[in-house]
Design goal:
By secondary structure, the chain is of the alpha/beta class. It has one domain: Aminopeptidase. The protein has 7 helices and 10 strands. It has an 8-stranded mixed sheet with strand order 1-5-2-6-10-7-9-8, with helices on both faces. The chain has a two-stranded antiparallel sheet with strand order 3-4. Helix 1 packs across helix 7. It binds zinc ion. Zinc ion binds next to loops.
């Protein structure tokens, strides 16, 4: 089962061109409509620019968003070509405008914003709820769902780990709060669109099936199949939890 999941993620990631600019007249992101009132967003699936500095793609977040659309029917919005801005940083961006249009024209009751963090933080998953502000009604249920599959730890404890604990998660790590001062997608959905949202950061081992040859990241890398499988299972169960709570 895990092997076919990994193969499918590799196929889906080919829809994402990390560094290529969009063809003339096309946007650097794709929206696929779904049947469920949940949108999975992956604004950093490709190379993007924050304050004129280039930032590398968050590999396989685009594949994961597409996979959830395919397997359970969520709406999805993800970057598929090089971005000249940072939708998770800039106050306004074409990505945010599109998200707003989707929110106004479709029945979207929750936004899951997917990101990738480095293994150097030594834990698997960071959940950001803007310190309790982005989805207060759902946060206890979300926490319960995650706690059933991942072990909760603190930022301080994670700092003392000497190796990666991919099955551990931190809620509202200071670096991954989902946006207190920054103009994140989570904050935009919550404050501007009135749609509750959650930011999810997955470590490299829990999402990167195999680094592609033209990645901006220099060294070959393979994630851990078990970790990737568990991350997918978690994302699917989070959607289930939310649907049951609406
Ligand atoms: Zn990101």
């Amino acid at each position: 089962m895990t092997a076919s999941l990994l193969n499918r993620l590799m196929e889906l990631e080919t829809a994402v061109s990390y560094t290529t600019p969009p063809p003339e007249g096309e946007r650097p992101f794709t929206y696929q409509a779904g049947d469920l009132p949940i949108l999975v967003s992956a604004p950093h699936a490709t190379v993007h620019q924050r304050c004129r500095r280039e930032k590398g793609e968050e590999e396989f977040t685009g594949a994961l968003a597409q996979l959830l659309a395919e397997t359970i029917g969520v709406h999805t919005l993800y970057s598929c070509y090089r971005l000249m801005d940072d939708p998770n940083w800039d106050r306004s961006s074409p990505y945010k405008t599109t998200l707003q249009e989707i929110g106004q024209s479709r029945d979207i009751r929750f936004v899951l914003d997917l990101h990738g963090m480095s293994n150097r933080h030594r834990f698997g998953l960071a959940l950001g709820t803007m310190n309790g502000r982005s989805c207060p009604t759902f946060e206890p249920l979300i926490l319960q769902t995650v706690q059933a599959q991942f072990q909760q730890t603190s930022q301080a404890a994670a700092k003392s780990y000497t190796d990666l604990h991919w099955d551990h998660f931190v809620l509202n790590h200071a670096r991954f709060t989902g946006g207190l001062a920054n103009h994140t997608i989570t904050r935009f959905a919550t404050e501007q669109l009135g749609i509750p949202a959650l930011q999810i950061e997955l470590c490299s081992s829990a999402r990167v099936v195999e680094r592609r040859p033209f990645s901006q990241w220099p060294t070959p890398f393979r994630g851990q199949p078990e970790a990737i499988q568990q991350a997918v299972t978690l994302l699917e169960s989070l959607v289930g939890t939310l649907l049951a709570a609406f």
